[in-house]
TrEMBL record:
<protein>
    <recommendedName>
        <fullName>tetrahydrofolate synthase</fullName>
        <ecNumber>6.3.2.17</ecNumber>
    </recommendedName>
</protein>
<dbReference type="InterPro" id="IPR036565">
    <property type="entry name" value="Mur-like_cat_sf"/>
</dbReference>
<dbReference type="GO" id="GO:0046872">
    <property type="term" value="F:metal ion binding"/>
</dbReference>
<feature type="domain" description="Mur ligase central">
    <location>
        <begin position="43"/>
        <end position="186"/>
    </location>
</feature>
<keyword id="KW-0460">Magnesium</keyword>
<dbReference type="InterPro" id="IPR018109">
    <property type="entry name" value="Folylpolyglutamate_synth_CS"/>
</dbReference>
<dbReference type="Pfam" id="PF08245">
    <property type="entry name" value="Mur_ligase_M"/>
</dbReference>
<dbReference type="GO" id="GO:0005737">
    <property type="term" value="C:cytoplasm"/>
</dbReference>
<dbReference type="GO" id="GO:0004326">
    <property type="term" value="F:tetrahydrofolylpolyglutamate synthase activity"/>
</dbReference>
<keyword id="KW-0436">Ligase</keyword>
<dbReference type="GO" id="GO:0008841">
    <property type="term" value="F:dihydrofolate synthase activity"/>
</dbReference>
<keyword id="KW-0479">Metal-binding</keyword>
<comment type="similarity">
    <text>Belongs to the folylpolyglutamate synthase family.</text>
</comment>
<dbReference type="InterPro" id="IPR013221">
    <property type="entry name" value="Mur_ligase_cen"/>
</dbReference>
<dbReference type="InterPro" id="IPR001645">
    <property type="entry name" value="Folylpolyglutamate_synth"/>
</dbReference>
<keyword id="KW-0547">Nucleotide-binding</keyword>
<dbReference type="GO" id="GO:0005524">
    <property type="term" value="F:ATP binding"/>
</dbReference>
C-alpha cells in the first residue's frame, strides 16, 4: 500500500514547486471545500515551525481536543504528514483519500495541481471528515501563496522566525521574504510572532497594524542552566524560556481546564528548544 501511495504521488512530482492558490482552491472546491469546516492554527516561519506544530498539537490533544496536524516534509513515510491526536493517518486511509483527490481533477485539466497541493488537499479532506476541533497547519513554503493558505479566519496565525531563505522564490531581501510570510495574517485574526530581525519586524508590524490583528510578540529566550544531576545520562541541557507581551485572547477554557497535563512531542532532541 505504501508503494501505491508513492506511485500515485509520483505522477504529480513532475509539476514541481509552483506557488499559487488558484489550483488548490479549484481542487478544494471540487472536493466540497473541506477547509471551510476546519478551524485552524496556521504556522509559518524560517525555523521552529515544525516544533511549534508539535508542541501545539500535543498540548491541545492533552487538553481534550480532537486535533489534526499537518506538517512537511516527512522523515520516513507520507503518513507522518497527516496526524490525528498525535497518531499518523492509516496507510489505507491516506491512499483512499488520495484516490478521492485524484478523482476530483478533470482529465482535461490544463493546470495540474502539484504534489504538495494534492497531499495538502488530502489533509483538508481528512480533517473535515474526522470533524477535528482544531487543525495545526504548517506552511510548506513562504506563506502568501502556499497551499495551506486558503482559510480566511484562522484561530491564530504564528510566525516563528524569519531569515533569508528560498530567496529564489520568495524574493532577494529579508523584507521581501517577510512580506511573503506575512501573507498568512488575516484581518482581525490573532497573531503570535517570534523574535525577528529589525528589517523583518518592520514589515510584520506594518502588516499587523494594517489588518488590525491582535498580536502577541514573543521576546528572545533566555538560557537556564540545569544541574546535570537532574538529567538522564548525566547530560547537560539548557532549555530556553521565552516571555511574551500578551493581550486578552481566549474567551473559552480548555475542555478539562484546571487539570495538569503532560504533553509529548515527537523527535525529542535539543532542536526542540530552538
Amino acid at each position: 500500500m505504501t508503494t501505491d501511495i508513492n506511485s500515485l504521488l509520483k505522477t504529480f512530482r513532475r509539476f514541481g514547486v509552483n506557488l499559487g492558490l488558484e489550483r488548490i482552491k479549484r481542487l478544494l472546491a471540487d472536493l466540497g471545500n473541506p477547509h471551510h469546516y476546519v478551524p485552524i492554527i496556521h504556522v509559518a516561519g524560517t525555523n521552529g515551525k515544525g516544533s511549534v506544530c508539535a508542541y501545539l498539537s500535543s498540548i491541545l490533544t492533552e487538553a481534550g481536543y480532537r486535533v489534526g496536524r499537518y506538517t512537511s516534509p516527512h522523515l520516513i513515510d507520507w503518513t507522518e504528514r497527516i496526524c490525528l491526536n498525535q497518531q499518523p493517518i492509516a496507510t489505507e486511509a491516506l491512499y483512499s483519500l488520495l484516490i478521492q483527490v485524484k478523482g476530483a481533477i478533470p482529465e482535461n485539466c490544463e493546470n495540474y495541481p502539484t504534489q504538495f497541493e494534492v497531499i495538502t488537499a488530502a489533509a483538508w479532506l481528512y480533517f473535515a471528515q474526522q470533524q477535528v476541533d482544531i487543525a495545526v497547519m504548517e506552511v510548506g513554503l513562504g506563506g502568501r501563496l502556499d497551499a495551506t493558505n486558503v482559510c480566511d479566519h484562522p484561530l491564530v496565525s504564528v510566525i516563528t522566525s524569519l531569515s533569508r531563505e528560498h530567496w529564489q522564490r520568495l524574493g532577494p531581501t529579508l523584507a521581501d521574504i517577510s512580506r511573503e510570510k506575512a501573507g498568512i495574517l488575516k484581518p482581525g485574526c490573532p497573531a503570535v510572532i517570534g523574535p525577528l530581525p529589525p528589517e523583518a519586524k518592520e514589515v510584520i508590524t506594518s502588516r499587523i497594524e494594517q489588518l488590525g490583528c491582535p498580536a502577541i510578540w514573543v521576546e528572545p529566550a533566555q538560557e537556564i542552566k540545569l544541574p546535570t544531576s537532574n538529567l538522564n545520562n548525566n547530560q547537560e541541557l539548557s532549555p530556553r524560556w521565552a516571555s511574551y507581551q500578551s493581550y486578552p485572547m481566549a474567551s473559552t477554557a480548555p475542555k478539562n481546564a484546571g487539570e495538569d497535563h503532560i504533553s509529548q512531542i515527537p523527535l525529542v532532541k535539543n532542536h526542540q528548544f530552538d
